[in-house]
Amino acid sequence: MIREFQADDLDQVMKIWLEQNLLAHPFVDPAFFQNNADLVRIILPSSQIYVQDINGVKGFIGLTDNYVSGLFIETNYQRQGLGGSLIEKAKQVHSELFLNVYTENEAAVQFYEKHGFIRLEDTVNAETHQPEYLMGCKVNRMVTIGKCAM
């Protein structure tokens, strides 16, 4: 079930955020995520967050306006449609979505492309100095719910 974030979810969301960042980004110094965890813990509740709750939080999507600031699913629940459901929720709330994804995180790039995102620009992350893509989609509600185009 997808629901809005509640203050009681913070510890589990942060656990998922740190574990999945470390697993998905072995090309980034782990200290980067570990050192930023306290800052993320502070700013995360000010974002629009939806969680996948299956007897507890198993994943979440964070939105800052129409920017996907994070999408993370616990390892044991990946590839079961939870991430796609969270993207669809974001598409219901916003008519246009953008995100940055590391180019080396090929699984994430493929996931977003599968869900209608296209590569808009090649960039370099200012903090990690890793190459990334700016990706985006515009939700075309006139054609089919959830379809994206740019």
UniProtKB/TrEMBL annotation:
Q: Which residues form the N-acetyltransferase domain?
A: 1-140
The answer to keyword NAD applying to this record is no
GO MF entries: acyltransferase activity, transferring groups other than amino-acyl groups
Keyword tags: Acyltransferase, Transferase
Q: Which Gene3D superfamilies match?
A: 3.40.630.30
Q: Does the keyword Transferase apply?
A: yes
Q: What CDD domains does the annotation carry? A: NAT_SF
InterPro entries from the UniProt entry: Acyl_CoA_acyltransferase (IPR016181), GNAT_dom (IPR000182)
SUPFAM superfamilies membership: Acyl-CoA N-acyltransferases (Nat)
- Its name, as the record gives it, is N-acetyltransferase domain-containing protein
Supply the source organism for this entry.
Commensalibacter intestini
